[in-house]
Amino acid sequence: DYRILHEADLRDYLAGIPDLKALLGGEPAAWSITEVGDGNLNLVFIVKGARGGVAVKQALPYVRLVGESWPLPLSRAHYEYLALSKQAQLAPGLVPALLHHNETLALTVMELLEPHIIMRRGLVAAAHYPRFVDDITTFMARTLFFTSDLALTAAEKKEAIAAFAGNHALCKITEDLIFTDPYRIAEQNRWTAPYLDGLAAALRDDMELHVAISRLKLKFMASPEALLHGDLHTGSIMVTVSETRVIDPEFAFYGPMGFDVGAVLANLLMAYFASAGHESVPGERRAFEAWVLETVEQVWGGFTGKFLDLWRSQASGDAYPASLFAGERGAMRLEAERQAYMQRLFTDTVGFAAAKTIRRIFGLAHNIDFELIEDPKRRAVSEARAVRLARGLMVEAAAFRTIADVTGAARKLRDW
Ligand code: SR1
Ligand code: MG
């Protein structure tokens, strides 16, 4: 039976699993167990023994951030486990190793990532991550390409969609919190008042924005292009200077690829705008901001390059049948089509990046990039710059043809 595990239960539970007991080592009574979850949904424990450590994640039957008044299915732990297994196969070394899973307890034991930290925390401290671009672009290109119609047969793809179709409660969170609530009066919305009161009201009255966000919502709901991580922000990435691991894919489902790519870009751009609010060391801030924008450009460029390479060399899916693109003329036409596909994906990415930004400033769940700026006036200035960029990206997504158009617009807003 499901029960919420507390320290003593968890100790007994882990001690009862021979492989984990051996991995942790020593006497179970001496293991240290600390609950460290700082996310919005689950419990996360770090357990350390004489020999080693593990991370244990247990889903709660409700949204942790809000409490028992907001029930949430435990099945999300199943989808997270399924997604992690798939990602481990497609992007080895870029997700934590899975050590144990218990469906009934909605509990997963994983490799303890040490000395990794949540990337968002590093970005607030103006840290640079030299491995990040290569790792995240490999992760996205491989997980998105190999779960798409470009790599799967139609039957495989439909089976895969079905395997994640039950994760709709998590999708509903996204549909409400990202694509709807920030644009209407909703009890759970909040923003940096009173400074952003006018901007919040303007969003609620901006019909062009409402059309744009509704198109994105429809795309999110009705475009099962590939297996998404579904919540790929910088709080779902753990880093050191030499390693990157993507964690927490409990929002996984088959959706539009631009949602994952847009999440990464949006969170980098928010780190960029927040940086001015953390200006204790101005020189280092400017260098950090330059690195972030360079990273934004390299993430899109690297992702595109790797995705296209996979398409050119490993297309085994039912989409774009090779028999229709025979000979030199076919090869040239198919290559032009690949470029057009990436351009459409770029437009989606830009729109989703905008949606992911606006939700963190006016919706329920905020991020520490902005929240740790103590002075509300200063925080509001950073947030308003990000919102200005986001509105442009969303309403005029097609006008942004290249990633340099996006970083150029961000740069112009740095001192706005
Ligand atoms: C109620 S859950 C709020 C947010 O936390 C998760 O990390 C997702 O981003 C979700 O939208
Ligand atoms: Mg999460």
Describe this structure in words.
Homodimer. This protein is α+β, with helices and mostly antiparallel strands and about 425 residues long. The protein folds into two domains: about 5-110, Phosphorylase Kinase, domain 1 (2-Layer Sandwich), CATH 3.30.200; about 115-415, Alpha-Beta Complex (Aminoglycoside 3'-phosphotransferase, Chain: A, domain 2). It is about 55% helix and about 10% strand. The protein has 15 helices and twelve strands. It has a five-stranded antiparallel beta sheet, with helices on both faces. Strands 8-10-11 form a three-stranded antiparallel beta sheet. Helix 10 (about 255-275) runs antiparallel to helix 11 (about 280-315) and helix 11 packs antiparallel against helix 15. Magnesium ion (MG) binds near residues 39, 231 and 248.
CATH topology type of the largest domain: Aminoglycoside 3'-phosphotransferase, Chain: A, domain 2
**SSE order, one letter for each helix or strand:** HHEEEEEHEEEHHHHHHEEEEHHHHHH
Q: Considering DSSP H and I runs of 4 or more, what fraction of the residues is helical?
A: 40-55%
> What count of structural domains?
2
Q: What would you give as the CATH superfamily of the largest domain?
A: Aminoglycoside phosphotransferase (APH), C-terminal lobe
Count of extended strands = 12
In percent terms, what proportion of residues is strand?
Answer: 5-15%
Main sheet characteristics = 5 strands, antiparallel
Which structural class should the secondary elements be placed in? Answer: alpha+beta
CATH class of the largest domain: Alpha Beta
Assembly form of the protein = single chain
Mean pLDDT: 97
Task: Write out the strand line-up for the largest beta sheet, numbering strands in chain order.
Answer: 1-2-3-7-6
- Under the CATH scheme, the architecture of the largest domain is Alpha-Beta Complex
Number of helices: 15
Uncertain residue segments: none
Give the termini separation: 56 Å
> What's the overall geometry?
globular
Radius of gyration over all CA atoms, rounded: 22 Å
**Small-molecule components bound:** 5-S-methyl-5-thio-alpha-D-ribofuranose, magnesium ion
Domain Aminoglycoside phosphotransferase: 33-270
GO molecular function: ATP binding; S-methyl-5-thioribose kinase activity
Protein name: S-methyl-5-thioribose kinase
Family: Belongs to the methylthioribose kinase family.
